Amino acid sequence: MLSANDPGTGANYQRVRDVLRQDIIAGVFHPGERLKIAALTERYDIGANPIREALQQLQGEGLVEMVPNKGAMVRMLDEAMLRETLEMREVIESFLARKFAQTGSYKLLDEIKTIQTEFEQAVAENRTEKYTPCNSAFHDVIMKAAGNREAEAFLTRASMLTRTIRGVIGYGHQRLREILAEHRALIVAFEARDVALAGQIAEEHARHASTDLIAQYHAVMEARSTTRQSSGGRRGAVPKGWSPDLSRNRS
Amino acid sequence: MLSANDPGTGANYQRVRDVLRQDIIAGVFHPGERLKIAALTERYDIGANPIREALQQLQGEGLVEMVPNKGAMVRMLDEAMLRETLEMREVIESFLARKFAQTGSYKLLDEIKTIQTEFEQAVAENRTEKYTPCNSAFHDVIMKAAGNREAEAFLTRASMLTRTIRGVIGYGHQRLREILAEHRALIVAFEARDVALAGQIAEEHARHASTDLIAQYHAVMEARSTTRQSSGGRRGAVPKGWSPDLSRNRS
DNA sequence: AAGTGGTCTAGACCACCTT
DNA sequence: AGGTGGTCTAGACCACTTA
Q1: Which residues contact A130 (CB under 8 A, 6 or more apart)?
Q2: Measured between beta carbons, which residues in chain A are less than 8 angstroms from residue B60?
């Protein structure tokens, strides 16, 4: 996992990295926005060096782009890059499902079924706040079962990237029913230990998610280009004022 | 001073990053070795900050591990990590081959055939220095054709990691003949536009390479532990890699 | 308590604009 | 030239380890 969600530990450059990552994912800074050292220095109330080191690490995670003598900006997501990431995700999800069909324990399978039941119930009762946790939990079990940290790292990274464009938007009702159906089919394939089928379903499942996400990407781009002032009050100077207390390690 | 042939990259932290990466891959620093700021400061004749930033970036690339208030070390490669990386490579190579069988142009296919001919000839004439370039060129065409930078990034990273353990060791003669045969089979599948077959062959090809590499890993570990006469007493000490200090390039 | 070595601050420096 | 803003140096600071 990339971040133990514990912004109270370790060196300052790590805390800055964690909080900055949160801010980027949360949309405080949007793709393509310039990240000036001076602004960040003030926002997080800390010197330039920890900021720079945090940026270097975030660059490694693919969230930030740095150009020598030019500075850093939130990574610009063009459609090509998005497609490539999603394509990789399809491949990896398929692999994970095949591996689970082969080697997944019945205990974990039961866990998946429990999560699915919970998911179905949440949808039936319209408890939208549970959708994302349930969906994540479902895929998490399959991912963790494979025991491949490289795959985990990629998917974590991919989900961070997609979240920067998805924002807090939820799922459409139609898509939600598809998701549930595909999850059910996947469970059936797991129970039958049908490796090829599981791989195929997972790949299609991921492909549907990709299609959905690319459509959302287009919608967001459309909205960005037509509205000068966006709803969140985001253009212009760095919004300051909430600032989690980073000045802990200082005399 | 930084080494002579540094690319024209502007910032010092980038030059340090590039040279340090070279040094790690070349085995100047071996896996598990501590990378002290002071030593690097002297070696590269530059201040602490560019060094630290270079290390942060290399951490992002997976070559270096950093612990707050502890410092950095060359990433330790245990067998589990190696297996996980190689497993991912199998998945991705298979995907690339499937994609090439679907969408690869005949021009690129011709290019691959030319490279293969060259490879066969090099083997016939025992020109060992051409093996790795030919092999890389073969896979590069397939990789580039897919136009997926995420996949490229992963494979590049994986090859850097494996090279830190493989060193300059070449291929055994038997394995070499297998490689050629598998490449030929892959070309046949491409010509037939047989997507499933191409994917299968590429996956097996990668799996053979994995087996080979893991065997080499074991051989290297074995060699180091017998040379080193450890009675197994010390546990928890710094798990030093293999490769005693051959580097005498202090200035 | 002293040592080692990572981390951070302040300010100088310099690359790339804009006028 | 003057401005903006990224980069680097020097040294202080502090966390962790030894005795």
Answers
A1: A118, A119, A122
A2: 56-57, 59-61
